[in-house]
Design goal:
The complex is a heterotetramer, with two copies of chain A and two copies of chain B.
Chain A: E1 3-4, H1 6-20, E2 24-28, H2 44-48, E3 53-55, H3 60-73, E4 76-80, H4 91-98, H5 101-104, E5 114-119, H6 134-138, E6 144-146, H7 151-163, E7 168-173, E8 182-183, E9 197-200, E10 205-209, H8 211-220, E11 226-230, E12 233-235, H9 239-249, E13 252-259, H10 264-275, E14 285-289, H11 297-303, H12 307-318
Parallel strand pairs in A: 2-3, 2-4, 4-5, 5-7, 6-7, 10-11, 10-13, 13-14
Antiparallel strand pairs in A: 1-8, 6-12, 9-11
Chain B: E1 2-15, H1 25-28, H2 33-58, H3 72-79, E2 87-89, H4 95-100, H5 105-112, H6 138-151, E3 157-162, H7 169-180, E4 185-191, E5 194-195, E6 198-199, H8 200-203, E7 219-224, H9 228-243, E8 249-254, H10 273-280, H11 284-295, H12 300-323, H13 330-334, H14 342-350
Parallel strand pairs in B: 1-7, 2-3, 3-4, 4-8, 7-8
Antiparallel strand pairs in B: 5-6
Helix pairs in contact in B: 2-3, 2-11, 2-12, 3-9, 5-12, 6-7
The chains are: A alpha/beta, B alpha/beta.
Bound molecules: thiamine diphosphate (2 copies) and magnesium ion (MG) (2 copies).
One thiamine diphosphate sits at the interface of chains B and C.
Chain lengths: ~325, ~350, ~325, ~350
């Protein structure tokens, strides 16, 4: 099996699903001729033509809004938002329409739409190029939110997302696009949505993370006996895998890039406070970004959890 | 060096039948007697539904309702031009469109009674559930039109919205997409001159809404929205154009909302009786009646029969609607996703909605 | 002191702040001649004229976006969004601009903007007239989120919000607009932001709620010895009051209208799981709406927490 | 009945100085020699900054940078028309505007090095931090103009954005507000014919962006954006109009982005060398030089001196910038709110940023 990076893995997923299903179309700013600013869609225009790979005007609201209309009509649009922050204009289309179309029409219309976007820190880009606001989308009923952490699961999860019957927000950690490679089968395969994975087994602390922070947590775990869970699907998350691990270890540390207040870590910790409190030896720790605006490049490494901050949380967890 | 004119635009206004019932021979030429009768009867049906909905609301039998009184020509005239494969993207004030398309009347009542099943569109009818957030359905129509183009279907997407809706970002981005990709879409703005209490002139400083089409590189036309025939002709032309790869059209139907915004509104707070009375004199049925009389298509009995028929239909629908079992709480959860989430599974039990 | 309802209290707050400070302006759809669809702004146009009370086009993005520009220039705009769901189009303006202007300009420009909107169930209106998506705003650094529960604190909190140096999302529970009256001083007064209030003292269970659900929790608490906290400011919430109460009672139940997943209840429970776990006798309970699209009027009473559901949580909490 | 034209529009195109340096006598009449020299020198300064920024980026001394090469006339020409009390709302590609307004050069470098302090605008300079989300600054400008009107100030708000920005909902809603309230705003679209890889014709099917003004009931004009004098004249007129209660103007500067979109981009993937070369022949300095020579304002020494002066300024700024202490991590928290939240208080300690 070839070792490839995440950009190549996502590109494969898109190409193979477009090959397999003529209803899959790709649209976004610069996704065609330019192949996407991260080259994720490279080659798709040549292969599938401008009717299925569409370079669009600079209109995020309409990108998602048109996606909803296409999906209702029977296509399976994969919309690329160039950076996560630029999806904010489209939140109404996602929240008031994409997530509700099935419920509002009692199943007559559905919205099999994928909104892909790079997210998180990592490229030292300009302002608003480092967002990790996944919690906003996780709060919306009727949608799935997915974050891959390796080339392998990027491909498998994206294929599942495209085949899913409802809308999926698919967040691609920009820092991981080219920084890791893994073995990825050449043909199409799926990694199921809604399932987490024990990325590293351990006995003393359950660590829950996803995307970039998964790897940082692994790095920080040296010297601790951590069981590290790659959440992968953030909404709905895999309660069983999380619970089983915490029952075993009795300690939980959640690591995420987003600001702490009302981040997904809150939901995970609240879940544990409700369902696992009798198994917990000590406090559920969240290692997250501060209650502050995401800084520009010069300070962004101080903003997101560092290995040091994560280790400190492990140490504190081990006090109990 | 230069100081020159590089582009010119003209806004066209169409009226096929004037207030006295005189028809423009060219514009009406392609319209059959049958079509004119269908307009008349559909307006009667819409109005009958509308009156009953208003009374049911007063009696607390349905919730807030948005009357279409005054705007029936815009809705019925345009809806009659639709073909089976066209798709419609309505706002919340499109009763006339739904009914003209043959939507089950009892479901319309169900919807206004606050029940999602009222918008479980029957198979074969291509109209989306009414969009409540103003203007947000516009990009959906562009998207469906795009899908039609991609799939090579001979069909068009038709979107309805109000003058208020034309101020939203969705309008701009949606119409611009339609222009760039030359999509088979028809955008119908019912300019009823009010967005709740905000008059048309305070909605935009532009003289017409039709002229906004120039921003997107396609045609816009203003039509007398109280002239069912004019609206029909304009819509039909736009649909034809769309299906022949001619791209989108923006049609502004210049009309008037004769009732309160909804049953929760009191329009006397912000507009004069005189204005309303003046527009009552221009309501669409009057001129259609005059036209049809001239054409020998109208008699008192004919109208009476049409009214009776509409009443019977609406009465039966109300009975059906009210006999329909109430929605089940578990439906709240069941229709959100294709499959239940772990949390939903638990919730169904927790709330006692499933064993 | 006169007993007035929340509509009158908010109206007083607006009028008095406009009187006091010429930079305070009010804008929105139908806020002028019509006095607002709930009549909250009634009389303001007559009193302060069309330059300070502005009926605008139907443009939520621009309502907030213009508000940001006005605030940067030195006004104190109070923007009314007619119903909470219609703020979704403006989320980018709130999240990418209003909340960040101070940080981005290192204090040169600030954004003293108030976005008021009715929220929650209660009026049996059409779709999207019953949203309670406060958690989305709570996740944004650089903003305050406030919910009054009585006419008294509606007035005092709104005055504080208008005087605040930064942006505030002010959510008015539509169900409470006219359903309760309380004594409200005629002149201007403030209720501080960031402080919760013990609404009802008790020893066995700490109940945290706000807005409409506060009253429902009180109703459900009969027969239980509940200490009920009115959170009032949702972001940043008053950690001290919450913690002190839970230390005392050892039990916590959070009640909110919003869907549970990543709701504010998650942040509160996570806070307790981290800071109070050693004081907790049993699980932290959340009573919230299901993971489902907000239904239309016929089913909305089944969606939000009922007194029965709240009582059940109290009973379960008391098992420990 | 009617089928008639109810409104007509014309799009005006302005060029004060053509590519050979010939001036339109009427358009240039109000422009002083001093102003022409300032344009020239400001373009030189902008270009010097720009070249240095590109090298610093290559050397890893600053981050991603967006070049303004080719667009200097649009930026400098318009910025020279500003008065002290006017406010400016820029996008991320407005180096020429900042520098012409006298913005501290070292701060510009700081900003591109990823430091918020680079956008801590000095008191007295009324320009907002660059807006990165495309088009989102447009409603801010409308809001500031509105505030000027409410406060009775004689001033205007000027907003800069690109052809891509004109596709956003913010554009539509912002300009519509400006039209309805007749605000003192000037909207300057630098149509540089590309939005990263998307060419202008794929951004909208409309022939010009200027014509979009008709949608909002005010004037739009297209100007040769490589003609600093033309841009200056058009902006000055729009500002005058705005300050005399004449309402907003949309100015489309037709120009060209000669470099890659940013230093992260590779424009050769999507456009031809020939196209770029052709436009290089039209870059703004050439014609200004020709004009000034004809007017007796230009000599080789003059230009050399201007370049030297610009270099010295930029060199000093880079020294200043690089000697500046790095930002403190605690600033991340300190500048978010006016007062610390309880959580922030704890975080400062937890992260070791405060005792
Ligand atoms: C985005 C949004 N903002 C506000 C509202 C509240 N509202 C409902 S209808 C309406 C006025 C709509 O005016 P218009 O588009 O002209 O349609 P009409 O009601 O006249 O049919 C308003 C403000 C809404 N439903 N959606
Ligand atoms: C809302 C938003 N979407 C996407 C981007 C990514 N992006 C940055 S610049 C750009 C193109 C902008 O084109 P234009 O408005 O013409 O300005 P120009 O770059 O040509 O100056 C894009 C797509 C962004 N910054 N903001
Ligand atoms: Mg209207
Ligand atoms: Mg451009």
């Amino acid at each position: 099996m070839a070792k490839i990076n995440m950009v190549a893995a996502i590109n494969q997923a898109l190409a193979q699903e477009m090959e397999r299903d003529g209803d899959v179309v790709v649209m976004g700013e610069d996704v065609g001729k330019d192949g996407g600013v991260f080259r994720v869609t490279e080659g798709l225009l040549d292969r599938f033509g401008p009717e299925r790979v569409m370079d669009t005007p600079l209109s995020e609201l309409a990108l998602v809004g048109c996606g909803v209309g296409m999906a209702a009509y029977g296509l399976k649009p994969v919309v690329e938002i160039q950076f996560m922050a630029f999806a904010y204009e489209a939140i109404e289309q996602i929240y008031s329409h994409a997530t509700r179309l099935r419920a509002r029409s009692r199943g007559r219309f559905t919205c099999p739409l994928v909104v892909r976007t790079p997210y998180g820190i990592g490229i030292k880009g300009p302002e608003l190029h480092s967002e990790s606001s996944e919690a906003l989308f996780c709060h919306m009923p009727g949608i799935k939110v997915v974050v891959p952490s390796t080339p392998y699961n990027a491909k498998g999860l994206l294929i599942s997302a495209i085949r899913d019957a409802g809308p999926v927000v698919f967040l691609e950690p920009a820092r991981l696009y080219r920084s890791i490679k893994s073995e990825v089968p050449e043909g199409p395969f799926t990694v199921p949505l809604g399932r987490a994975e024990v990325f590293q087994e351990g006995k003393s602390i359950t660590v829950i993370a996803w995307g970039t922070m998964l790897h940082r947590a692994v790095e920080a775990s040296e010297g601790f006996d951590c069981e590290i869970i790659d959440l992968m699907t953030l909404k709905p998350f895999d309660e069983e895998t999380v619970l089983n691990s915490v029952k075993k270890t009795g300690r939980a540390v959640i690591v995420h890039e987003a600001t702490r207040y009302c981040g997904l870590g809150a939901e995970l910790a609240a879940f544990l406070a409700e369902e696992a409190i009798m198994h917990l030896k000590g406090p559920v720790k969240r290692v997250a970004s501060p209650d502050a605006v995401v800084p520009m490049a010069a300070l962004e490494d101080y903003y997101v959890p560092t290995a040091g901050r994560i280790r400190k949380a492990f140490e504190e967890a081990m006090k109990y | 060096m230069a100081d020159e004119i590089i582009e010119r635009f003209e806004v066209r206004y169409l009226q096929a039948v004037d207030e006295s019932g005189n028809a423009d021979p060219i514009l009406i030429a392609s319209v059959s007697d049958e079509e004119i009768k269908r307009s008349f009867e559909s307006i009667i049906l819409t109005r009958t539904f509308n009156q009953r909905a208003l009374s049911l609301q007063r009696e607390g039998r349905i919730g807030t309702y948005a009357s279409v009184f005054g705007q029936e020509a815009s809705q019925v005239g345009s809806a009659l031009a639709l073909e089976k494969d066209d798709w419609v993207f309505p706002s919340f004030r499109e009763t006339g469109v739904f009914l003209t398309m043959g939507y089950p009347i009892w479901q319309m009542f169900r919807y206004w009674a606050g029940d999602e099943r009222g918008m479980k569109i029957p198979p074969g009818l291509n109209i989306l559930p009414m969009s409540v957030p103003v203007g947000t359905q516009i990009p959906h129509a562009a998207g469906a039109a795009w899908a039609m183009k991609i799939k090579g279907r001979r069909a068009a997407a038709v979107c309805y919205f109000g003058d208020g809706g034309s101020s939203r970002g969705d309008f701009h981005e949606g119409l611009n997409m339609a222009g760039v990709f030359n999509l088979p879409a028809v955008f119908i703005c019912q300019n009823n001159q009010w967005a709740i209490s905000v008059p048309r002139r305070s909605q935009s400083a532009a003289k017409t809404i039709a002229q906004r089409a120039f921003s997107y590189g396609f045609d816009g036309v203003q039509v007398d929205g109280n002239d069912a025939v004019g609206v029909y002709v304009a819509t039909k032309a736009a649909l034809e154009k769309a299906k022949n790869k001619g791209g989108p059209t923006l049609i502004e139907c210049f009309t008037y909302r004769l009732d309160d915004h909804t049953t929760s509104d009191d329009a006397s707070r912000y507009r004069s009786k005189e204005e309303v009375e003046e527009w009552k004199g221009r309501e669409p049925l009057i001129r259609l009646r005059l036209l049809m009389r001239k054409m020998g298509l109208w008699t008192g009995e004919y109208e009476k029969a049409a009214i009776e028929k509409a009443r019977a239909l609406v009465d039966r629908a109300i009975e059906e609607e009210e006999a329909y079992p109430p929605p089940k709480p578990e439906d709240i959860i069941l229709y959100t996703n294709a499959e239940l989430t772990p949390r939903q599974f638990k919730e169904l039990k927790e709330f006692g909605w499933r064993k």
